[in-house]
Design brief:
By secondary structure, the chain is of the alpha/beta class. It is built from 10 helices and 14 strands. The longest helix has 21 residues.
């Protein structure tokens, strides 16, 4: 089977592309490189283009059997201050992609969604039955695209899997690909930047939450566990079924717990300071991954220690490559 990986030069998309390749799939990466990196697509056919370029996209779609869509703007804070950017890219341009797929022979589509569609849930852990009530434009734009997929499935037979990620973390065990964002906002790579003096300190936003140590609790899932779920999602689509699934571990870790793990594995203290809470940060977000485990026979297997260890290895390799260039 041939798979078109939209946004395959980004963090999660590149890991999915490598997982597909290891399983024998033919992979084509399509990315405009606005936030992606050609280095993460090394070893693959890379077509540089916008998903709004319908003629270019249509030509590629004739060569594949299925599509994985990872291309999106994904900064929650930015989405609040620049909602136009998020609805334009994540929804309007996304619908252009969906229509191009519909006009092709492809009828299998995997969407990179987010737990942000749930907003501030009343109950933890979060199941797929939890009401989808996003509290920021990023989550709203992803939810709107989920609604479109549901409608296209019913009307046109476009089968889809929407994966609602929790906190994607870590790097490929090879150390060859990992997380690159500019600016970086995710806890683990930000902590490494503080260790390497590439930023001043790690800000801990709030220590007065109703959690065991007062800091926010999140469900950190290794990026390769996510990638492997996408392959099983393709197999689910092959059976003619659609699904909307949470991808998480089912276990939460606090910010302090993650920092402690980073310090233990790196052997370095993380420069840090306490800061006030950020508006809208829920105290706890943890997945109930039961549905994905049942439907796909999938389970997240990598621990927080493996997440941090692989991310640390990638951080060291990336710095080494930069220093020799």
């Amino acid at each position: 089977m041939s798979v078109l990986v939209i946004g395959g030069a980004g963090y999660i998309g590149s890991h999915a592309a490598h997982a597909l390749k290891r399983k024998g799939y033919k992979v084509i990466i399509y990315d405009n490189l606005s936030t992606g990196h050609a280095s993460l697509a090394s070893g693959f056919e890379l077509i540089v283009g916008d998903i709004s370029d319908t003629p270019k996209l249509a030509a590629v779609l004739r060569r594949v059997d299925s599509v994985m869509h990872f291309a999106a703007h994904a900064y929650v804070g930015e989405s609040v201050s620049h909602p136009r950017k998020y609805f334009q890219n994540n929804l309007v341009v996304g619908l252009s992609l969906l229509d191009a797929v519909l006009d092709s022979r492809v009828r299998k589509f995997i969407f990179s969604s987010t737990c942000a569609v749930y907003g501030n849930p009343a109950k933890i852990p979060i199941t797929e039955e939890t009401p989808r009530l996003p509290v920021n434009p990023y989550g709203a734009s992803k939810l709107a695209f989920e609604y479109a997929l549901e409608a296209y499935d019913r009307a046109y037979g476009l089968r889809f899997v929407s994966f609602r990620y929790f906190n994607a973390s870590g790097a490929d065990e090879s150390g060859l690909i990992g997380e690159i964002h500019d600016p970086e906002t995710h806890l683990i790579p930000v902590a490494f930047e503080a260790i390497h003096a590439e930023r001043g300190v790690l800000e801990i936003y709030g220590d007065d939450y109703p959690t065991p140590d007062g800091t926010c609790v999140r469900d950190y899932i290794h990026v390769n566990d996510l990638a492997e779920a996408h392959i099983l999602g393709l197999e689910h689509l092959e059976r003619g079924n659609s699904a909307e699934l949470n991808l998480g571990t089912g276990r939460g870790h606090s910010v302090r717990e993650v920092i402690s793990t980073i310090e233990r594995i790196s052997g370095r203290e993380v420069p840090k300071r306490m800061s006030p809470r950020r508006p809208g940060d829920p105290s706890e977000l943890v997945a109930d991954p039961t549905r994905a485990e049942k439907l796909l026979s999938w389970k997240a297997t990598r621990s927080l220690e493996e997440i941090v260890s692989t991310a640390w290895k990638w951080s060291q390799n990336k710095r080494g490559a930069t220093s020799t260039n």
